[in-house]
Amino acid sequence: MLIPVLLSGGVGSRLWPVSRESYPKQFLPMTGVDSLLVQTLRRSGDIVGVADPILVCNEDHRFIVAEQLRGAGVKASAILLEPVGRNTAPAVAAAALQALTIDPKAVLLVLPADHVIQQPAAFADAVVRGLPAAEAGALVTFGIVPNAPETGYGYIRCGEKRCGEKQGDNTFVLREFVEKPDLATAQGYLSSGDYYWNSGMFLLRADIYLSELESFAPAMLTAVRDAIGKARTDLDFIRLDAEAFKTCPSDSIDYAVMEHTTRGAVVPLDCGWSDVGSWSSLWDVETKDEQSNASSGDVLLHDTDNTYVRAESRLVATVGVTNLIVVETSDAVLVADKSRVQDV
How far apart are alpha carbons 266 and 341 in whole angstroms? Predict the structure, then answer.
């Protein structure tokens, strides 16, 4: 059984002032009409044979998640509430333990709830290509085919093909994860053809992931098991035990498991992906005019180029500017050089 696991614990701080701690970017229609969470639900739900999703979110966002599920007409198999954030490795562990109560051979499709994918059919095809390897025990990650020497993303170095097509394994050996590079290093990565952007999306069997976590981060697994074992049901939610979960070490799935495992595999993916981690990345995926401007809301642009302008409550006009991010909300305005948006 293939079970989507949507991780919805982030706060999207670099997309301030639109994304706030109380209502972060995954719940907002940053691109199009639907929120990023609903977009993620829809594209994972379109994969043939997929089961009802498991969602992991902050306690404070539980009613937002439930309402957006209801509005999208999606039934979750479980909504797990984290009392505190402990990064992605514990969140996936909690989802894996929950999935095993549904199917002892469950395969998890782990997806951040706040990404944009412009070509969902290509994404679905990549999942299908990686599924045989995941079912056989590989921990599969999706490497985004880079189209620029991006310094804001981590990278994955990919090796040779793991085995032939006859075995149904269309994945490549995962050599290493690489931290965000400087520009010269990123250009070298792009030229080599061996490096992909780290998408943060995974395809893995629940039992295999937990086994690897027990090998590399046993204290984490013990704390999550305890938190799940003492969890209580509250309406449509499963509340992880707060005292137990707070003892859990905080770490990402990359650091806790994927950098150590010998089971790592990569499926290259070219699907118009963005983590929408900053205003400039949102500008990247938006439709632009002839002057390379992207805009949203009541906006007038004159002698303006290479700029993103978003107006939420009033008219915003620009004259004679270039390479800017201008974001207006009812209580705050952000104006930034596009090259400095990582500082927000």
Answer: 30
337, 21 Cβ separation under 8 angstroms:
no
- Dihedral of CA 83/85/86/88: which sign? positive
Residue by residue, DSSP assigns 267-320 as EEE-S-EE---SHHHHHHHS---TTS-EEESSEEEES-BS-EEEESSS-EEEES
Quote the pTM value.
Answer: 0.93
**CA–CA dist 112, 91 (Å, integer):** 11
Among 272, 265, 281, 240, residue whose Cα is nearest residue 93 = 240
In angstroms and rounded to an integer, the radius of gyration of the C-alpha atoms of the chain is 20
Q: Please report where in the chains the tokens 């949102």 appear, as a residue.
A: 282
What residue ranges in the chain does DSSP mark as E strands? 2-8, 54-58, 78-82, 107-112, 116-117, 139-144, 155-161, 172-178, 195-205, 232-234, 237-239, 264-269, 273-274, 294-296, 299-302, 308-311, 316-319, 324-328, 333-337
Residues 165, 178: Cα–Cα separation, whole Å? 28
Per residue in 158-184, pLDDT (tens digit) is 988 876 444 556 799 999 999 889 999
Q: How far apart are CA 62 and CA 56, in angstroms?
A: 9
What is the length of the chain? 344
Q: What single-letter amino acid sits at 264?
A: G
147 CB-contact burial (10 Å; exposed 0-12 / middle 13-18 / buried 19+): exposed
Pairwise CA distance, residues 315 & 301, whole Å? 11
Give dist(CA 246, CA 227) in Å, integer.
9
User: How many other C-beta atoms can be found within 10 angstroms of the C-beta atom of residue 148?
Assistant: 11
Per-residue pLDDT reduced to its tens digit, 101-140: 999 999 999 999 999 999 999 999 999 999 999 999 999 9
